[in-house]
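Holo prediction — 6-O-phosphono-alpha-D-fructofuranose.
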Amino acid sequence: MNINRSILTLDEFTIQQLRDFPQATGELSSLLRDIGLASKRVNVEVNKAGLVDILGDAGTINVQGEDVKKLDVYANNQFWGVLKHGISCAGIGSEEMDDFVIFDDAVSMNSKYVVLFDPLDGSGNIDVNVSIGTIFSVFRRVSPLGTPCTVEDFLQPGHKQVAAGYVIYGSSTMLVYATKRGVNGFTLDPSIGEFTLSHPNIQCPPTGKIYSVNHGNFFQYDLPVREYITACQKKNKSTGGPYTQRYIGSMVADVHRNLIKGGIFMYPGTTDKPAGKLRLMYECNPFAFIVEKAGGVATDGRQRILDIMPESLHQRTPLFIGSKLMMEELDSYRK
Ligand code: P6P
């Protein structure tokens, strides 16, 4: 009997990957399924955020100095819970928590991975019903199994990531993750409550017509960035300009669109904030890993994002990420 397996769920896909690589222990597959479960729980609350008293500020201020909204806290706790009670994670780092958290039970201390995440990025958009997202990054720990995880397990350069991904809570809910084997996208099918493989082997188009940047900071960007942005607005037979400017103000939504359609997303440093706004460990590193695995490029304006040696959990970096040829065009303004 020919069993139809054209539409694999996330669980079936990760288990299939396990069958294809028998030497794998299954911990990473299990970790990705745990993240999928937490995402489904967050999705339920995000979808009804406008209906219950979960909106509004939780009254606390997070380490970024931003008002924390209740949904942020709820999302943070969902990922914390599944990762702590799974079999794959020795500890977590989160945008919502000042320091990393060690899982000190025996099973967790014997787990191979640590996870960094932004539980609900773009949370300022929650109240106005704009797409928001979760971003996660997975490292193999460098400290000995059987001992508590250490800060060195988290502060690894991005090219050491084992997996990275994001969930976008938008017109549909999608989970996209990358491993060394490639980038795959799963769309939540509410009829069965499962993420189903909808975007196998995602490739970032080598060029595109979309540039994403906050024009309000234009005069604070350095000259090469200002010259490139200006060029994006001009007719140009060789590059197909003028381009279209699209900027939602929610990183997951902006980068996801450019990953699928082609484009460039920029959050440059400014005169006020030379390091930019976006965080390296749980925003820029995961997206840089994903976009590079899909054939794109990600830099801080000088070096690969994935080559940056981290110094602290919440450090920021300028970010330029997207289609290879558009990134090369941007670089030509720096030379
Ligand atoms: P700005 C959301 O707060 C966020 O961290 C990213 O999701 C988004 O890309 C960026 O900030 C938007 O920042 O300064 O342009 O409003």
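READOUT: The chain has a mean pLDDT of 92.
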